[in-house]
Amino acid sequence: MDFFKFLEPIEWVVAWIMYLCHQGLVFLGMGDGPGLGWVFSIVGLVIIIRILLIPLFFKQIKASRGMQMLQPEMQAIQKKYKGKSDPASREAMSRETMELYKKHGTNPFASCLPILLQSPIFFALFRVLNGLVPISTGDADPIGPINAAVAKDIESSSLFGAHLSDVFLKTDDLQAKIVIGALIVAMCATTFFTQRQLTMKNMPKSALEGPMASTQKMMLYVFPFIFAVSGVNFPVGVLVYWTTTNLWSMGQQFYTIKRMPAPGSEAERLMLERKKRKAAAKGIVEEAAPVIEQPRGQRQQPKRKDRQKPGTPRVITGTTAPSDKVEDAPVDDETGGTAQGTGKGSPSPKKPKK
């Protein structure tokens, strides 16, 4: 059983989109048969797929921003349960983490969703391009509208001398290797700058610290390295697809970051500066927020209440006005007690001696 059998419906959709894009380009004046029309049909495939994924793209931006913004709270939870490995602590930590994701409206899976949804399309295009030669010779069944004649036209189409089905490790043509190498470099570079644009420019400084930020920075360099190693096994058409989709992502992110930057990020600071310059060019003077000056001088220290010493008489003042002076209660020399009285401290009559 073929492991990629589930990709056959997606391959059929990819084949039809490429074919219809090529027919549209022919209608606009491009030549039929082998040529750049089939290269641009792959670009058309990227544009159609990415338009369909625009809602998910904005969810990805929001999720990635949310994952970075919640890092201080996430670190607090991790610190709270550090060193606790009992089931109750693990369950409580998981529950608080999920509540934190719910509070910020994000989760780690949402930030990877567009990439995961594009993966089947990527592999379907890979299989369509790899199947062009056997389809053109009649050794494989057609895929949708791509029959033997169409497959031969696509396979014969080239970009700067490299055929769409050429692979770096499977071609002996030096010119094709140079073109494929340039496409691999372009794919890796656009992948790097796309990730860097999202993580470095649209995040506040507080979100660029901690374990999650370190992982993001590491992946910033790991992904291009993975593509560089695996790119030598990709056909030219797949390299064109991935480079084009990276360029599309960079454009989308540039617009999103410019219009809707994350609070506290470098992009937000630049946006506010642009607004100030535009307002100044129109002669609009923004009113500065009033600054409330705090009174200067020595801060009044709080008064400490005197603690009652043992044996010290307690004076009951009643409702004496603040201006009235309360005299100290006299001490009875014979009994050692205090004289009870009113607010004036008048002595009470002595008890008769027995």
Molecular structure report:
By secondary structure, this protein is mainly α. The chain has two domains: 1-155, no CATH class; 157-282, no CATH class. 58% of the residues lie in helices and 1% in strands. A two-stranded antiparallel ribbon has the order 1-2. Helix 1 (8-27) packs across helix 2, helix 6 runs antiparallel to helix 11 and helix 9 packs antiparallel against helix 10. The longest helix has 27 residues, at 174-200. It starts with 7 loop residues before the first helix and ends in a 73-residue tail after the last helix. 27% of the residues are buried. Mean pLDDT is 75; it is low at 288-298, 316-329 and 331-346.
Write the topology of this structure.
Elements: H1 8-27, H2 36-52, H3 54-69, H4 71-80, H5 87-104, H6 108-130, H7 132-136, H8 148-156, E1 158-159, E2 162-163, H9 174-200, H10 211-230, H11 236-259, H12 266-281
Antiparallel strand pairs: 1-2
Describe, in short, the structure shown.
Belongs to the OXA1/ALB3/YidC family. Type 1 subfamily. This protein has twelve helices and two strands, in the order ααααααααββαααα. By secondary structure, the chain is an all-alpha fold.
